[in-house]
Amino acid sequence: METINFKLPQGFESGATHAGFKPGETLDLAWLVSKTPAAAAGVYTKNQFQAAPTQFTKKLIQSGHQLQAIVVNAGNANAFTGEEGLANTAKQNQLVADQLGIDPALVGVASTGVIGKQLDMNVFKTGLGQLQLSATDETMPEAILTTDTHAKKISVTLTIDGQEVTVTGFTKGSGMIHPNMGTTLGFISTDAKVDPTALQSLLSELIQTSYNQVTVDGCMSTNDMVVVLANGQAGNDEINASHPQLNDFKDALNKVLTTLAKMVAADGEGANKLVEARVINAQNKVQANQVAKAIVGSNLIKAMLFGEDGNWGRIVQAVGQTQAALDPNHLAIQIGSLTLVKDSLSQTVDQEALHHILAQDHIEITVDLNIGSAQGLAWGCDLTYKYVEINAAYEG
């Protein structure tokens, strides 16, 4: 497996434009299109006020397990918009299908932006008429952003059945990040041929240890959706549960999902630091992940790291707040390479070395629960004054 410069897999094209959902000339409408119908898998927000496009695309994928195109707008979430919002999503779907000359059952819809505003369909129609398709387009990752500071994208290649396969992903997310499926919007395309059932199984499994282990602010979006499309243009034998290279494809998909998840954490609203929590020697993986996410999700720890303060008592509090099994007399805590706590006792630490670690833009916290052998990872960011500034006046 090799990480390469961003490129669309064989048989995929995309394009983006400024439709007018966002001010200025910012790209705010895009589409990803396969030349042939592709196996499709998805995971979706568990927020009870699931946005109209999320509801719509979830039903499409669950009923047909195929998509050929997905259209995405930024600047308007089309969430909490009632029957009119659902009707507008259906209109988007039909308009895209008509323009591409494909079955509407193969067109997914996604939106991101301000909650509670009806989608301006005239703006959508204007933008749709401007959209082009190119196999070398790199603008779609830019068009799905909201408060993000940069696009988040990755491509990897591997060989399956003697054929080169590409897996490409891009995502958005900066605030309102605390997933219970796969946060933000994320789109992964591959030219591998994959059985739809196997594809959904892989995504549902891998999302738990990638996107679901990210938290920025503890707020779960109404619009979260991660979709994977596999069009089979690489010419490999179909990957299913018995394919000898299933794990190779799984590793590549995991690489894409995990990399994108970490990019989301690092670009948290106003963030200065990416924080990675590693929990070791837990009773099981579920509990390990639970503790890791509790660490990166603690506002006290996030503020501590922004202030570059080594108050490890806040880590103890976050770990103890969970229901995970642990040995209370033998907890260990490391920040970077320095052991701050061993056997639940404070250790003498070189404060200058600690301050140097805390000044970095990537900080690793390791917690040893000393109760088993399982490990877990989670990613987050520090909590800065800028986060409050951004969200005190957010309009999309």
Task: For the structure shown, list the relevant keywords.
single chain; 396 residues; alpha+beta; 6-stranded mixed beta sheet; 31% helix; 28% strand
Describe the protein's architecture and organization:
There is one protein chain. With 396 residues, the chain is α+β, with helices and mostly antiparallel strands. It has helices at 52-64, 82-100, 121-130, 140-143, 196-206, 246-266, 285-297, 299-306, 313-321, 351-358, 385-392; strands spanning 2-4, 12-17, 29-44, 66-76, 107-114, 152-160, 163-172, 185-190, 225-230, 274-282, 332-335, 338-342, 345-346, 362-368, 374-381. The strands form two sheets. Strands 1, 2, 3, 4, 5, 6, 7, 8 and 9 form a nine-stranded mixed sheet that branches. β4 (66-76), α2 and β5 (107-114) form a beta-alpha-beta unit. α2 packs parallel to α3 (121-130) and α7 (285-297) packs across α9. The longest helix is centred in the middle third of the chain and has 21 residues, at 246-266. It is globular. The two termini are 38 Å apart.
